[in-house]
Design goal:
With 428 residues, the chain is α/β, with parallel strands linked by helices. The chain contains ten helices and 20 strands.
Length: 428
């Protein structure tokens, strides 16, 4: 039996830097043709167009078997959404080929494929017709779609009047319930309330158990780890790794962390770090993986060019979409002498973070905890860590309690200890 999705040597090329200007007259065209050989000579034979070429995808090859849930991960700009657009036949590949064995239902953006002037009822039927379904097939699923989307009161309202939450509920319900053999979803969990997001996870699991294939892009690595049976990691438009989700997630996080920690100047706020600065940011947690509910322990190395008193550490934790999840300012104050280097260990307990991937921002503030805070140094983007999902035997709840803790919370249970490194260590 062939795989549901087969991708072979796939490449997608775009032209950037603006479009070529059109010639307004025949004379202009003839002049350009005359100039072309000289222009090519000046560029040592290189084409001007070649300078504008950008490969969003290059030489991508993988298969997805029937009934598999494939997670696609990678940083912003890695080519994830472009890949799904090619698989959804929204855009044509430049090189290679894609083989799809079955009807494809996709949700790439909120309301993709909806006509804003049509009602929810009409758009459900329109999407079914686009998928090639017969009217009786659509009607068979109609009540399930409406119940899942929870839009009964607004079923006969034009979707242009829907809120973004109503839009995504209906769009996901249509994509998941209509009889497509391949379901493609791009960041559906970034929109909507937590209960609906949890329901989406359960539905995607049901779809796979029915023998259909699911491809999902998500920055929430906890979702990928708990839901998917296979994952691929894209970087700079190329396939960096493919395999079991836990291995691919660890590969992604280790590379992301390495890139960020070794380039702190790129992460430092402009004008900061003149008196006292962060030299290193890391975690004591093994491989930057944290079990759900386990305390976080950050190791911060700082150095000062001045005598400073009543300093505090502030931190903000962000999810991978850039949303602030929680913040803290340490109760403990500390001092540092000119030329001194300190290692600060910041332990955060009772952390109500959902399983997933996160990154941090840190600052050094002066004036004490209760004074008007003035930051002397501030960085954002490191370290990166992952909260691992708790184990559960409930197949209908792939991420039990995963939604807990969302919202901008303040972490109250913290402990800051200050160490002075040995001189030989400090001079390394």
């Amino acid at each position: 039996m062939p795989p549901s999705v087969r991708v072979q040597n796939l490449g997608k090329q775009y032209t950037i830097g603006g479009t070529d200007s059109a010639y307004s007259t025949l004379r202009d065209a003839l002049v350009e043709v005359t100039k072309a050989p000289l222009s090519r000579f000046k560029r040592n034979g290189a084409s001007a167009k070649a300078e504008k070429i950008f490969w969003a995808l290059r030489d991508i090859t993988f298969d997805v078997e029937q009934g598999e849930i494939l997670g696609v991960i990678g940083r912003n700009g890695a080519g994830k959404s472009t890949l799904l657009k090619v698989l959804s036949r929204i855009t044509e590949p430049t090189t290679g080929r894609v083989e799809l064995y079955g009807r494809v239902g996709s949700l790439l953006e909120v309301g993709t494929g909806f006509h804003p002037e049509l009602t929810g009822r009409e758009n459900i039927r329109l999407n079914g017709a686009i998928l090639g379904m017969r009217r009786d097939e659509i009607e068979k699923k109609f009540d399930e779609i409406v119940a899942f989307a929870e839009i009964e009161k607004f079923l006969d309202t034009p979707v242009k009047r829907y809120s973004s939450g109503m839009y995504v509920r209906l769009a996901f319900a249509v994509a998941a319930h209509l009889e497509s053999e391949i379901l493609i979803v791009d960041e559906v969990l970034a929109v909507g309330d937590t209960q609906f997001q949890k329901k989406c996870l359960g539905k995607m699991g049901d779809v796979a158990r029915d023998g259909r294939t699911v491809l999902v892009v998500s920055h929430n690595l906890g979702v990928v780890g708990a839901l998917c049976t296979k994952a691929i990691y894209l970087a700079d438009g190329m396939l960096r790794a493919e395999g079991p989700p836990d291995e691919i997630i660890n590969c992604y996080l280790s590379e992301t962390l390495e890139n960020k920690v070794h380039d702190l100047e790129r992460l430092r706020f402009s004008g900061m770090g003149k008196q006292v600065r962060f030299l290193d940011l890391s975690m004591a947690n093994t491989e930057n993986n944290v079990d759900y509910g386990e305390p976080l322990e950050f190791v911060l190395t700082i150095q000062s060019d001045a005598d400073l008193q009543a300093l505090t550490i502030g931190s903000t934790i962000f999810n991978m979409t850039g949303t602030s999840i929680g913040s803290l300012i340490t109760r403990e104050e500390f001092s540092i002498a000119a030329g001194e280097q300190l290692v600060l260990r910041l332990r955060v307990s009772n952390l109500p973070l959902a399983p997933g991937s996160y990154y941090c921002g840190f600052s050094i503030g002066s004036g004490g905890r209760l004074a008007v805070r003035s930051d002397l140094d501030a960085l954002i983007g490191a370290p990166t860590f992952q909260v691992l999902p708790i184990s559960t035997n409930d197949e209908d709840d792939p991420l039990i309690n995963w939604h807990r803790g969302w919202g901008n919370i303040v972490f109250n249970e913290t402990c800051l200890t200050v160490e002075k490194p040995h001189l030989d260590h400090a001079n390394k």
